[in-house]
């Protein structure tokens, strides 16, 4: 079945780049997502990528997809204290109702 | 610009009590979902709905019921609360079919439920 794996914790210094990694098992996954959850809040969609893309950039965020290795990463440039949150990787197929499988979340701690 | 609104935000129940969690969205989304979030378990889908009047079971439906009488509302009911249902509950909605402009979910801010 589908599975999405992430490391639990990442600590970086303010101003450095953060790289959060994710692996998934379903090779037919069509959409891959990154969500951000701040303390006491719901998940917020940050960005998504189609499986036929290798990279997507959106301001400070860069998503890299290695479809062969089923590896997805989120790079945050110039990490700020406001980036401290839990980041969830997720994947789904396309068409109709498709189950979205979420990873367990990576807690990013930004040290001032 | 409300998005997805959940009520209540916090609740403490005694074992055996019942309650209903309300989710309302103002984005005209077709699909709605209820998740629970537990430490070390990530997000687990309880029930979902692909349109007004429809509901379907997710991964962990036991002990919960849902209704979608109006497109904008999705209710989650606990008939007889148990300590194992202590969790943070999130409602989410999405435009419709995955793809063709529907990318990702919009989540509410959650309901923190404690069953004692």
Outline the fold blueprint:
The complex is a heterodimer of chains A (112) and B (116).
Chain A: E1 4-6, E2 9-13, E3 18-24, E4 31-37, E5 43-50, E6 55-58, E7 61-66, E8 71-76, E9 85-92, E10 101-102, E11 106-111
Parallel strand pairs in A: 2-11
Antiparallel strand pairs in A: 1-3, 3-8, 4-5, 4-9, 6-7, 7-8, 9-10, 9-11
Chain B: E1 4-7, E2 10-13, E3 19-25, E4 31-38, E5 42-49, E6 56-57, E7 64-67, E8 73-78, E9 87-94, E10 106-107, E11 111-115
**Helix/strand/pairing category of chain A:** mainly beta
Count of individual helical segments of chain B = 0
Q: What is the N-to-C order of secondary-structure elements of chain B (H for helix, E for strand)?
A: EEEEEEEEEEE
Strand and helix order of chain A: EEEEEEEEEEE
Beta-strand percentage of chain B?
Answer: over 45%
Task: Calculate the mean pLDDT score of chain B and round it.
Answer: 92
Number of strands of chain B: 11
DSSP summary, beta strand count of chain A: 11
What's the gyration radius of chain A in Å?
A: 14 Å
Task: Describe the main β-sheet of chain B briefly.
Answer: 7 strands, mixed
Distance between the termini of chain A: 40 Å
